[in-house]
Amino acid sequence: MKKIYALLILAFGCMSYSYGQINVSGIVVSDVEKVPVPGVSVYIKGEPKGAVTTDFDGNFKIKAQQNEGVLVFSYVGFKTKEVSFSGTQKLTVSLAEEISTLNEVVVVGYGSQKRSDVTGAIGSVKNENFNKGVVANAGQLIQGKVAGVNVMAASGEPGANQDIIIRGVGSLRSGTTPLYVVDGFVLDNSSNGVATNPLNFINPQDIESIDVLKDASAAAIYGSRAANGVVVITTKKGSKGQSKINLSMTTGFSSLANKVDVFSADEFRKQVTAVNGTLQDGGANTDWQDELTRTGVSQNVNLSMSGGTEKSTYAASVGMDNQEGIFQNSDLKRYSGRLNLNQKALNDKFNIAFNLTATKLENSRPDARNVVGNMLTLNPTDAVYVNGQPNVNLSNDAVNPLISQRIYSDETNNNRILANISPSYEFIKGLTYKFNLGVDYSMSERDIQVLPYTSATNTTESTLNDIVTNNNNVLYENTLTYNFNVKKHNFTVLAGQSYQKIQVNQKNYDFKGFPDNGVEPKNQIGAAAELRRKSSSAIENELQSFFGRLNYGYDNKYLLTATMRADGSSKFGKNNRYGYFPSVALGWNITKEDFLKESETLNNLKLRASWGQTGVQEIPSKITKTSYTESNSGYDTYPLDPSDTDLASYPYGSIYTRLANPNLQWEVSTQTNVGLDFSLFNSRLSGTVDYFNKVSDNILLEVAPVDPIQPASKYWTNIPNMEIQNNGIEVALDYSSDKSKDFSYSIGGNISFTNNKVVNSPYKILTTGAAQGGGQTGATINGVLNGHPIGSFYMLDFTGIGPDGQNQFADTNGDGSILDNDRIVAGSALPDYIYAFYLNLKYKNFDFVANFNGAAGNKIYNHVAMTSFNRGNLANSFNTTDRASQYLNEASTNSNTVSTRYLEDGSFLRLNNASLGYNLSPKLVGLGDVMDNIRLSVTGQNLFVITKYSGFDPEINTGTSVGEIQSFGIDYFSYPRARTIVFGLNVAF
């Protein structure tokens, strides 16, 4: 009988459990637009492990063990909401949007803050606002998106290097490169052996947000490396709830965006005859710009997965990106993998974050300078092919560029791993210790080779340059953070210590004389006739740092941030090993005051002010120490054997190549900033206004000694009293319409005015740009002049062609002679202002976005025109533009002197990218049970540019330098930009 009772009780309990388990379903819509919200996390209060996620149409279904309870709905961008349920009812839940960005989290370096608490000047871009299209690196994602940040690609090559200039050029020797921080790991800007952009190793689709720390208050926590600003990259992390799988695929087609207007074959024949030249007529009609460019096909596939529980979250992705350039042998292939993990334990007091990025890059590069030169100057009457083979009898004994492309290659293979693990423990409420251990390891091998080639008119000797580079960057950091409140007083105190060690070693071998046996030189090094050069180098740098920060707020109205960092670098001598970089910032949330608290028009008004110092340590290693080499020439040696009569038999002597300078000091940038953040009309209109003044002093340069009798020709020093000044105004505005309607829009933009000037320079000019080739090698084009911006063009003022057919220049000093002292400052390569604006449109499931950017007030020196588009070349049957026939009386022997004749307006407006997308409901195609969302898109990049510049593109900067001082605004046969159309498919599961 007892057994029977037990069975009855068990059966009743099972029945009770069965009847108690119910299904609660419904739909989640936005509060204003009343449209479904996909991806919302739904769980029963107290049971987060059983969370589900709404589908594409906002529907959800969840099992409950009880007949009554409370459901919790949460999603980024919306306020969390709790809704009671009873029985198997169908719910309709409206979520209110977090319209204000004040609660947005901003990365501030070694931590994060709510936007409402930020006192520094920080520009943030989330992934949904990134630039669209074929994108190789993080810089392209934010071009035109942040006020005061000018992103310029060196060329149109896939993955080309970039200049990211934050609030003007503030240094000479260290260039413009900001400090990059990826998931808390500080990257090193040393060479990793890859000739293109070092940020190409990060898959742009893995990036969640990019924060740009612009003023010294925001950047000073990074001390000695933050003078050019800081770019903080945060990759995507997992979140609790149902696992998500996302597959994206794109295919892009790229072609030459703009041609240079050189003569056609018929025009060429007429023009050569008109200048009494020697016409070499091949009888063809060839457009070399068409022949030497192609339609590049780019493909991208990316698969990502994310999810997790209350204790553990994950995000993983794999990607393949293959970008073809518009030149042959121009490709960038990236194979990437990422894994981000986060685990909590010990009642959530202990937390471990792990980030891993692994990338393989394969980069093929053409000889772009020669390709561009050929496509603009080769005789258009020459045939490309004869009897189906490349024509080997071109005018002027030129090598057919199709053959040059076949025998030349520049290939780099790079493997890179970036990983860091960050365990943290909260000892007491608000007091957390964190340890960050990271490593960035890169290994590259680059082979530049030329295959042997012989024809009736040309012989090319086979060569190979093999370069192997290893870069190892290890970081150890310890931080202690304490958050606590005392009534209306809020405190966050940070103290930390950091140690970073960078090791770079490189081996370089240069061979020539390989046999013509069908085997590539890189695969038969032992067959080389001669090892022309061999070299190796090893560099080891260390940085030891201590830092602290105090964030204080009173009643969410009055804010204070104070920072101090001390950096000790092995690059400096013992006398000045450490540098100290303080900052302080104040903030006032004016709308928290009683007189504005009830305002229905003004939603946010915050005044910010800051002062701080950052530093520069991007100088060569070991320069504070003496360096020697050996020599047996001139006065460096003498004979030990009196019978020696030839220097070749003299012994080698040791000579100085560099003098020791243990007193070398840090270059320091001091910046003041005043800013105003505001939003009105229920936060539909928002914006920021900032004024900044940045002064760099103690400028580091390698210069010639004043006393010519020195054992070394140059030495490194700080230039006393010399300053680089940048000041300006930044404005950003955004407006969003009423989203409750089927049609909605948002529009906005930013503009930045920057005044750059060098003062107290002891030098007449420090050349930053010089002519190359054409008999003008080394002639100054632009440089650093006292009282003028960096990159000021300094040259003769061209006034026309004289009666003798030669150039005429202005006699600016009136002495009757045209000499170097008649040169003038004829403008600057740096723009007076940069600007960008966007337009977003949405109608039901369709959306459209267009992003424009531009610059004004800058000049470009058309080096291509100076070198190639002259009367002498035209007379010798090289193609040109109508520049060569502009002056009817110009002599064919007239020289191509550096002058304002080749200086052009660099202002432009570009439609950077435009994208049209459609969100297709999976239910419409019978896939509602499998997929959450299907998105189709088409994107255009570089669709048009409005400019007066006559070259391929006005946004040029070839990345060259003179005396290790960066050049700006000179078109050295730059790889032209492409126009790209991209078709995309994105599927969410």
TrEMBL record:
SUPFAM superfamilies to which the protein is assigned, alphabetical: Carboxypeptidase regulatory domain-like, Porins
Entry-linked PROSITE patterns: TONB_DEPENDENT_REC_3
Domain TonB-dependent receptor plug as annotated: residue spans: 115-230
Residues spanning the signal sequence: 1-20
Pfam families: CarbopepD_reg_2 (PF13715), Plug (PF07715), TonB_dep_Rec_b-barrel (PF00593)
Superkingdom per UniProt: Bacteria
Main location class: membrane
Domain TonB-dependent receptor-like beta-barrel positions: 384-943
Any one GO cellular component localisation term in the record: cell outer membrane
Subcellular location field: Cell outer membrane
Family membership noted in the UniProt record: Belongs to the TonB-dependent receptor family.
NCBIfam families xref list: OMP_RagA_SusC (TIGR04056), SusC_RagA_signa (TIGR04057)
Protein name stated in the entry: Iron complex outermembrane recepter protein
Organism: Flavobacterium phragmitis
